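Exam revision sheet. Question 4 asks you to relate a sequence to its structure. Input first:
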Amino acid sequence: MMQILPWQKTLWESLSQRKNSDRLPHALLFSGVTGVGKKIFARDFASYILCYAPQNHHACGNCRACHLQQAHSHPDFTRIEPEEGGQFIKIDQIREAMNVIHSTAVVSEYRVILIVPASAMNTQSANALLKTLEEPPPHTLFMLICDQSLRLPATITSRCQKIVFPIPDREMALTWLQSQVSHQDKETLSLALNIAEGAPLQARDFLMNDTMTLRQDLYEGLVKMRARQMDPLLFSTQWEEKNIKILLHFLLIWLQDLLRFQLTQSQAHLTNSDYYTAIHTLAGKLARENLLQYYDTIQKSYAHISSAMNMNRSLLLKEIFIRWVQLC
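Answer key, structure tokens:
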């Protein structure tokens, strides 16, 4: 079932018109922050490309190609992602897909290859893809999805047309979010959108997966460690089985708020406005230079986690919270 998100309509119209006029490039790089709908767009655009009888620039949903796509069994559609339990896209996965696309299309006129996340390709797999991007077979469309395209080799990005998915207008995002989680009040929806940095799908996931409780546990732990009421090593063990990327995201926006308050002395600019009292108290007791150094450390850890690099989770968590206590 196609569901073009409200803030994607202009982008959809542009690409579908280019497809209809036979001006679609052979490779598209979809970039933008997590939670703005890049995967949904790519999935639905693939269905549209493969459809036998598209209607009003959308897949019809009724033809054989659409049925195959809905059943995740379309032979002309290939999705490449890290194998279960893996962190990287392997060179063998790329080679296998490249062998397939050089054969004749089976069902549809096009072959579509979706690579997600493209940043999970290592040097070998990226080089294997590059050979085909340099001389792509006709009627082949590559779609690469990446939260931050800077993590991709320049040789790959230079052979793709970059499509940036912007953060939508706040009112549009809130209206959509209300339709998804209608049981939440507007204040909670607005807070979730803030901590998701304006990304509606990320905000919806935070609300539906009880991630807001993890945020509360983290922030209360940070405050308790500051007051010497919580041992950082003990606190770190509570997070070893949880999503470290989410933890680092929340920690980054917490540190951003501390720095903002030091500069503005205003609650209006805080992302975590519900923690104003704690932020106000801590901001006055921390040296800005130390905060900036710690923020830089957490940013690097977040980048490493996002790029699928192997990291010792237990050691990373201990270091994060011990440094927080030392910072204070």
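Marking note for examiners. The two ends are 51 Å apart (CA to CA).
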